[in-house]
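Bench notes, afternoon.
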Amino acid sequence: MKVVISLLINICFLVCPLDNDVVGQQSNVILKPNEPIERRLKGGDVQGFRINLKANQFMRVIVEQRGVDVVLSLYSPDDNLLEERDRPNSTNGEESLSAEVTIAGEYLLEVSALDEEAEEDKYEIKLETPYTAKAEDKRVKAEKIFQEAMKLRSEDTDLLSQSVKKHEESIVLWHELGDSYAEAMALDNLFFTYKGLLQNERQSKAQAEH
């Protein structure tokens, strides 16, 4: 009887293919350089990709959002969070995560939906060819500064002036890199940060007059 049950289970696995999204949730796929992978993602999902890197390498992952706003999180081989990225471009456009790693090993990149109630939609992920670090990578620096600028803007209205400075620093770097998409996004964000700063100054002035 046990033999029959075992045989039926094996037949079921052969003739009943697993859903691709379920497979993606169960295991972390190896992400190879310049081999894009398209996936579907919904709110509450976390999909993992393994990246093998050598010591002192720069790496960059690009995600093309096609209807779902994603957050990228990079973990070290010992499971420490190294970097996290989420640009203010909603459900379409390019997300990018660049980093310099100091130790060799297998890194984990997690892709999750910003909105936990987001409907299922597509994204494409690609790893650019990693290269050996010779000096501080300008792209890594630009991404970190822009992320800091957005964090300062969202945390406290009293930090808006600092956010403005960070945005301006990132814009210079994006321009030098020739990344017009990232530069335009930083400029747009800078405009709204300036707007918030001016509103705060008007409110402070009005309160002082009373």
